[in-house]
Amino acid sequence: MDPIRRSLLGQLARLSAGAAMVPLSSVASAGINQQPPRREGDPSKRYGMLIDLRQCIGCQACTVSCHIENAAPLGSFRTTVSQYEVAHQETGEVATFMLPRLCNHCENPACVPVCPVEATYQRQDGIVVVDSDRCVGCAYCVNACPYDARFINERTQTADKCTFCAHRLEAGLLPACVESCVGGARIIGDMRDPQSQISRMIAEHKDELMVLQPEKNTLPQVFYLGMDERFVTRPDAEPVALDVLDPHGKEMGYEFGH
Amino acid sequence: MNSAIELLAPRYDIAWYPWAVQYFFMIALSYASLWLAAPGLVFGKSRWLPTARLALLACLTTTLVAPVALLADLHQPLRFWHFYAYANGHSWMSVGSLILPLYVVGVIVLAWLAWRPALQANRQAPGLQGFIARWASLGESPTPRALLVLVGLATLALSTGIMLYTGAEVAIVKARPLWHTVWLPPMFVATGVIAAAGLILLLNRVAGERSTTVTGQMLKVMLGACLAAGLIAGSWFLDGINANVGSVAAALESVRGSAEWRSTALWGGLTGVALFGALLYLLTRPAARRPALFAWAWLLGLVALHVGWMFRWVVLMDVQTVARHSAGFHHYGVPAGSSGVLGIVGTFGLWLAAILLVDLFVPWRQARQGGRGADVSPAPASAASPDSSQEHAPEGAPHHG
What we know:
The complex is a heterodimer of chains A (258) and B (401).
Chain A: H1 3-21, E1 47-52, H2 61-70, E2 80-87, E3 94-101, H3 111-114, E4 120-122, E5 128-130, H4 140-144, E6 151-153, E7 158-160, H5 166-170, H6 176-180, E8 186-190, H7 197-205, E9 222-225, E10 241-245, E11 251-256
Parallel strand pairs in A: 1-9
Antiparallel strand pairs in A: 1-8, 2-3, 4-5, 6-7, 10-11
Chain B: E1 4-8, H1 18-41, H2 49-73, H3 82-85, H4 92-121, H5 127-136, H6 145-171, H7 184-206, H8 212-240, H9 247-257, H10 259-283, H11 290-294, H12 297-316, H13 341-361
């Protein structure tokens, strides 16, 4: 990707992160693919997360603790940390870039209006959840999410995703990923409370914050501090490991692509 | 930025299975063949009646099978009633779930009205055929032509709803840039018409009708649909060629980055050009040579079905393997079980069974625009088409079972 386009996307990313600070009056429109009204949750709060990438060491403690807390099936993740080896363009020096990913609990979530039975909905505190008793497993939301934050849980055969550990928040606890983060890189809180840590950090670092794929107009509410703008969109990188298949097409293991 | 390597990222499975391809294929055949049946059955063009009879058979059977594939693509098929208990007007899929049953009922009623006079004429037939004819024809009263036209028009209107919702449902998904283009819904329709015309060419041969009128009409329709598809594909390409993001940019990126996508693009292009060339060749031959050449048109029908099915496979399955959030492509091998090969084969098997059952018990070759049982001439062969050059098996197909 050319540098101009990259920097444009970077600008866009900052712009969108900024726009999300403006308290959005919820749009009550009734058109197809518009957001249905929010329900449940505390309307006086708006949860969001700030991830300070300068503190992330890529230990995957969040991945593991989330997996245990939420009993996701093996191979499916509500949160995970992507890791990239990046070479400096001039010196060739190699560094590792860590990118924790989870549901962005967007202000304009692409997954919510597509649900044909309103099983997935946004609470008034901004958290996007799934009612697994109602979900028909059509997987439309899985395809609609640009962040691969959703999956079909093979055990429940319904859509599954990060809930900011709403059950823990309600009990006054931090989400499992935040609780277990060794570097304190993940900060969750109520963005409507100006005294919360997240509000203060957002105010402090306003111009440096970025969100993922701002051009999708989903207005993500997970903000990255210390982000490399080249990773804001789909990374232009050599893909992860290549699957090694046996002659019957069964997976034997991985190997790297080079 | 090729200096970056993705060391660690989860593997993301596809979310829509081949069932979705089967649904999109079947429902496209259904609405397109409905429109091919319309001139003869609804608008009363008698030259189109032989085509309409084959098209109605294609339409009814695909309409019955399509929702089965759609249900199977749900991970919780038994919760389908949630679509009606908790309908969400914000979702195209929900809108579709309201249109689809109405459309299915419309097609069933239309087929019943068109077949009823022939069923009435068949009431005296021996055995199960006669029993079904007596039971399904619901009395001896004539079938009002106006009612058939009315149901036909309503079903045609509903079919445009199906075209719109199946296209929009996919095209609104911003998360998959390859889908997110206004040119996708019309392309679904154009390739659907190509495939439906191909299916009718094939049925024309397999059912023993071998009508050159039908072949000529379907070749022309297919040529028109090919032109439309070419125009749509061209517009899509020119529309996006200068954009850095979007559907065309994503397609070019995929073609650049993957040998599989390159061969898919090449295969699709070559097949389209070959089909178009063959159609032009067949339609420009002198009239005297046409019957001999048209006898092979069913082969083009197979190619057309391939085009319609492959387009849906590439759009719905292959696009899901393009990583949207991580680097490269996800591996997808079609599994052997019901969410893979078995589902694909099973859908086609069910469809074949539906065609055979209709063929066994319903005198579909005498479908007509309403009227009385007495209007239907008893021999299936004489009801076929004005061009009597084709050879009919004297016993007629309904007895071959």
